[in-house]
Structure formats: C-alpha cells, structure tokens
Amino acid sequence: MEYLTGIVKKDTLEISELLTCCKAGQRVKVNGAVHAIRDMGNIAFIILRKREGLLQGVYEEGTAGFALKNVKEADTVEIEGILEKNEKAPGGIEIRMEALRVLSEPEDEMMPLAISKWKLNTSLDAKLNYRSISLRNISERAKFKIQEGITRAFRDFLYEQGFTEIHTPKIGAKSAEGGANLFRLEYFHRPAVLQQSPQLYKQMMTGVYDRVFETAPVFRAEKHNTKRHLNEYTSLDFEMGYIDGFEELMAMETGLLQYMMELLGRRYAKELDILNITLPDVSRIPTVRFDEAKQRAAEKYGRKMKNPFDLEPEEEVLIGQYAKEEWGSDFVFVTHYPSKKRPFYAMDDPEDTRYTLSFDLLYKGMEITTGGQRIHSYKALKEKMAARGMEEEGLTCYLDAFKHGMPPHGGLGIGLERLTMKLTGEDNVRETTLFPRDLSRLEP
To answer: Which SS3 state, helix, strand or coil, does residue 284 take?
Structure first.
C-alpha cells in the first residue's frame, strides 16, 4: 500500500527558480517546448517556451551530447546543462546544454503559423482557425495573462470587500434581460433559454449574503457581426445589498479599477512591457448624466442626436473623447439612462421616472460596464412588470425573494473581453477572446 502525502517536488526547474534559487555555474535541468531554433553554425540557440516565458539554451558542437539535427521546432524536451548569466538572453540567463531528451514530437514539422516571431503578422481569421497554435506566440500569450490579472484582481478585491463568490445556472426558464436575442432550447420537453446574465440569481443571493459576485459566461443571440460583440462572453458580475444609492456601486468599481491597475503593474509588468501597455490613471473617474453627455458631445463635435433613449457606438466614442479632452480621463461614468432602455428591475429615478438610477462605464469610448440600483420592493416590482405587460411565469421564484423581504441593492456587470481589448489596445474583441463564438464561428 502506498500513500500520497502532497505535491511531489520535481528536479526540473522553472524560470523563476533559476533566477532566485540557482547560481551561475550550477548544473540544472528544465523542460519546455522548442519555440525556435537559431542555427549559427558551430553554435546554435534553442529557445524553450515555458509557462513563465522564454528560456535560452546554447548548443555547441563537441560539448552537447546530442545532435542538433534531431531537434525540431514544437518538440517538447528536457535539457540539462550549466546555468550562465547573459544580459542579452531572455531573462538574463541561459543554459549551456550538455544533454537533451525529446519528450514528444509534432506529427507535422511545418508550423501553420510563424509563432516564434515576436508578433503574429497574420489575419485574425488565421489566428482563430489555428487558435491552439496562435496562442503559443509570446504576444498572444501576454494578452491572456493580462486577462488573468483582470479576473484575479476582480476576485481578490471583492473578497477583501466582504463579497461571497457564487455560481449560478446558465440554463433557465426565463431571462433577466428579455428581448429577442435569446438562445432558446428544449430542456426535457420544456422551453428554456441560455442566460443573458446572472442578474435574477445574484439579486436573490443578496438576500442571503448581502454581497455576491460571479465570473461566468453569458449568452446573447445577437445577429450582428461587429468588432465589439460576441455571442458568448465572460461577465464579471457583482451585486451588493444595503446601499444608500447607486453612487456606491460606481465608487466600488472605481476602487476595483484602482486595485486592478496596481496589481497589473506589480505582478504583470513583463506582459505589460511585451505589449507596450501604459496603464490608465484611475485615481478619479468623472460622472455625467446621460442626457447631458449626449448634449455635450453633440455641441462640441457637431453631431446631431438621433436616438434620445440610447447611446450609439459613435456617441460613446465622442463622449469618451470628450472625457479625455475635458477631464483628462480614459474612463467616464454615464448615469441616469432612460427607463425605456433599461430592464424591468432597474429602479426609476424618483425625481424623474423617465430615467433610472443606473449607469454605464465607458473606457476609451466603449461601454465595458452596465450597472445600477434595483427595485427591492415586491409591490413596486410587480407594478413595473404589469406596466410593461410582462407575465410572471418563469419568474415566480425570483419574485418570492422580494415577497419575503430584500434589502436596497444594486450591482453591475463588466465585459471581460471588452475590458481586455481596450486595455491592450486591440480593435476587435475576438483578439482578446480565447475561443470566440459569433455568427460564423462555432469552433475551435
């Protein structure tokens, strides 16, 4: 009988261990994938791709106990050799190789994409068609490490603020948002939908934990194919109870962004450098009413307002430009959206019920967050549903939470891929989506 007692310490080392725990001249062993081979004649450089970045191995004829011709790009290997310092090498270190063992070999020696280049100079379609390969490129990998940092900051910050992480179902009888952009399916001979957001569930859970959050996919059956829309994306949602006003939600998100930028700067400096990213200043974020924002942008840039109840993408861009020029901020909260364009659970402004106590956060001219205060009165919720001609079927359990008492509450949802897109300077949200789902793409 054998027992497992915990993690097994391996004799192969990671880059951070080589940098902190090893000395020049020490014999070391590492593994990784062959990212590139640069043959200079008697000397060659074998660049390994590891989870922490690139590591350079130096091959010299007569010193290495293997033939260079037996090593190919995309092999996974284990090498042994002497650790040396070299300022020109990635990370400032390299390994003078003495032995190499091939762990696996590719079936096709011709790579479909030149992933060893610093940046992939190919079309977006090619990147997505060979997604598992294109993501091996250093710049492509860096984007998703930044995305990891965003999610990590979201979780860590909210844990510190007393939030509880929840996991809600993605199949439901009815959606929170309604409308036509629903993926409908049959669920054991009953009609069902894929959830457009966790809204109903996270509201119910504020009656349990006061403050909750979730990071999970949401689904929108939108039939347009733009650079800013996906049919499945990751939403960073939180809901908080016992608020005195929706301003608390914007303040919480401002604190979150401050925490996020600090963490990215501290823990993801390498990726920021690879992508040449300068983190935005989030020390203060301006707020402006919806109607005022439209008016200011229209007057300054000579654009006639077309839709009085919503912001068109072009208007978002102009409002973002206005915020940068007038207030020096890449971010701007646009508040008090018209009630006609907000869901039934949005609380109307008691001073003018044509508008709601809600907001969007624009970043560099694109909406990345939608949030606001919710109706917490059972009676008021029923009245608004009735006024909109909504049926209660499929919402009974949701309404029960309010029937038995709910605190004043509100929350928001952040589009992870959109935030990553704007932070990394990409112009298409598919660039910052691991495996995008849109009108034309269902694989890989």
So the answer is: coil
